[in-house]
């Protein structure tokens, strides 16, 4: 049974001074003199060129590591040809790249083609499932964009989904770069974008999945809060709520930050208040529509639990599955040794990544967003091996590590990331799609 998505001038600017820590402004930015680059491109005819100059190194490096990992992933698929023996909706297909449109990708393609028909249909004879799976578990923004791209380009659902995901991944990488650049300088920004491209679970960034789109919206919403663009932040959070239910993290982050600004009167009243009030309506609107169509206002949550076995349990299943994995007892629900061990390794690294982030004293919006993302990823009953994917939206974890690495020579950083770029084809691609269930 597949899991639902509920389940963001280059010449002299690369050199970052080796001072102990950047002097931060209240919005979490570093002094432009420390980074060697202006905080924003200067207005005028050269603005587009300045934007390209600012973002191209990060996006280029991100593209290199993603293309490398994808190539390795496809080579592994071609080597085993196991995908030829699997159901097209469950990690199979006629060609290696078809795997990128399986699992959740099949549902998104169906929605893009046929729309929704929300229903709660009882299922009998299965101890962990009481309802048939239904497309209403998947939020509409991503398949809407797939349909739009298909109408403009003539591509089918698979091709449209890949186009949306790849473009969104670059927007997400740009947002991560912009945030890390404010906190630690240009070099940290480039490194953060690369780390996100190598993160366990990053195989879905260039697949028919909504993850890249969600991170793009979340990253830029956080950036807009950091730069006090409240209406833009609220709008992005509202739209993110149409993409997946975990948008509750960015909705809360933007709303709490707006509330603090409102109390402190740092940005007046109207803009932060408007942002705070508008953020939840995308997510609430879709859940209410599903409930109305089902004739049960709690229908969405019943579907999540009854069809996908997803529900809040305060982390009991995560703890139990962790103990089972490290003791070699792969008897729990949807256990898959390779992705489960990757999840354990990520959980071991998680406290250190949080420390690296929090030592920067980042803006409140990043703290709230990251902690809530981690909490939601670990506190629900879920497919344990998917922890790597559920933590992929926690992009600020990449920022803390990137800032810690910024004093290394670029050649040293490139050497550190060379093997992970190759290995990502296995740990973030093959292990996720073929040895587990993304």
How would you describe what is shown here?
Pathway: Glycolipid biosynthesis; glycosylphosphatidylinositol-anchor biosynthesis. It is found in: Endoplasmic reticulum membrane. It is a multi-pass membrane protein. InterPro entries: PIG-V/Gpi18. Its main location: endoplasmic reticulum. This protein has about 450 residues and is mainly α. The protein has one domain. The protein is about 60% helix and about 0% strand. The protein is built from 18 helices and 2 strands. The chain has a two-stranded antiparallel sheet with strand order 1-2. Helix 2 crosses helix 18. The N terminus is likely disordered.
Spatial ordering of strands, largest sheet: 1-2
Structural class based on helices, strands and sheet pairing: mainly alpha
Using DSSP, what is the number of strands?
Answer: 2
Low-confidence stretches: 1-27, 31-36, 38-43
Principal-axis shape: globular
Total of DSSP H or I helical runs spanning 4+ residues: 18
Instruction: Give the biggest sheet.
Output: 2 strands, antiparallel
Radius of gyration: 21 Å
Tell me what portion of residues adopts beta-strand conformation: under 5%
Our count of domains comes out at 1
Helix content: 55-70%
What is the distance, rounded to the nearest whole angstrom, between the alpha carbons of the first and last residues? 11 Å
Q: What is the ordering of alpha helices and beta strands?
A: HHHHHHHHHHHHEHHHEHHH
Would you tell me the overall average pLDDT? 89
Membrane topology: Multi-pass membrane protein
Subcellular location: Endoplasmic reticulum membrane
InterPro entries: PIG-V/Gpi18
Region (Disordered): 1-46
């Amino acid at each position: 049974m597949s899991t639902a998505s509920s389940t963001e001038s280059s010449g002299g600017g690369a050199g970052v001074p080796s001072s102990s820590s950047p002097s931060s402004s209240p919005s979490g930015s570093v002094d432009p003199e420390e980074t060697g680059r202006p905080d924003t491109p200067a207005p005028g005819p050269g603005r587009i060129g300045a934007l390209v100059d600012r973002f191209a190194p990060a996006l280029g490096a991100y593209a290199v590591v993603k293309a490398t990992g994808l190539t390795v992933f496809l080579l592994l698929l071609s080597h085993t040809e196991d995908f030829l023996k699997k159901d097209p909706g469950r990690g199979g297909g006629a060609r290696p790249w078809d795997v990128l449109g399986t699992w959740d990708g099949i549902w998104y393609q169906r929605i893009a083609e046929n729309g929704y028909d929300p229903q709660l249909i009882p299922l009998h004879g299965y101890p962990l499932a009481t309802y048939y799976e239904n497309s209403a578990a998947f939020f509409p923004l991503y398949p809407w964009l797939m349909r739009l791209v298909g109408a403009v380009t003539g591509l089918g659902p698979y091709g449209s989904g890949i186009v949306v995901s790849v473009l969104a991944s670059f927007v997400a990488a740009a947002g991560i770069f912009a945030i890390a650049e404010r906190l630690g300088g240009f070099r940290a920004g480039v490194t953060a974008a690369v780390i996100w491209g190598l993160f366990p679970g990053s195989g879905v960034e260039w697949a028919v999945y909504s993850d890249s789109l969600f991170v793009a919206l979340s990253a830029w919403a956080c950036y807009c809060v950091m730069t006090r663009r409240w209406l833009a932040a609220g709008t992005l959070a509202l739209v993110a709520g149409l993409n997946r239910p975990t948008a509750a993290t960015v909705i809360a982050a933007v709303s709490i930050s707006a509330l603090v600004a409102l109390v402190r009167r740092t940005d007046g009243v109207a803009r932060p208040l408007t942002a705070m009030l508008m953020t939840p309506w995308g997510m609430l609107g879709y859940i209410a529509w599903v409930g109305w169509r089902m004739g049960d206002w709690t229908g969405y949550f019943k579907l999540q639990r009854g069809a996908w076995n997803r529900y809040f349990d305060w982390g009991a299943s995560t703890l139990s599955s962790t103990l089972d994995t490290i003791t070699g007892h792969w008897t729990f629900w949807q256990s898959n040794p390779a992705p489960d061990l990757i999840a354990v390794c990520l959980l071991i690294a998680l406290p250190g990544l949080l420390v690296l982030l929090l030592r920067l004293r980042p803006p409140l919006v990043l703290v709230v967003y990251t902690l809530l993302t981690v909490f939601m990823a670990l506190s629900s009953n879920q497919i344990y091996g998917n922890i790597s994917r559920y933590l992929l939206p926690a992009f600020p974890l990449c920022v803390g590590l990137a800032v810690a690495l910024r004093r290394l020579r670029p050649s040293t950083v490139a050497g550190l990331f060379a093997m992970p770029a190759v290995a990502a084809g296995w740990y973030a691609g093959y292990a996720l799609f073929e040895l587990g269930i993304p």
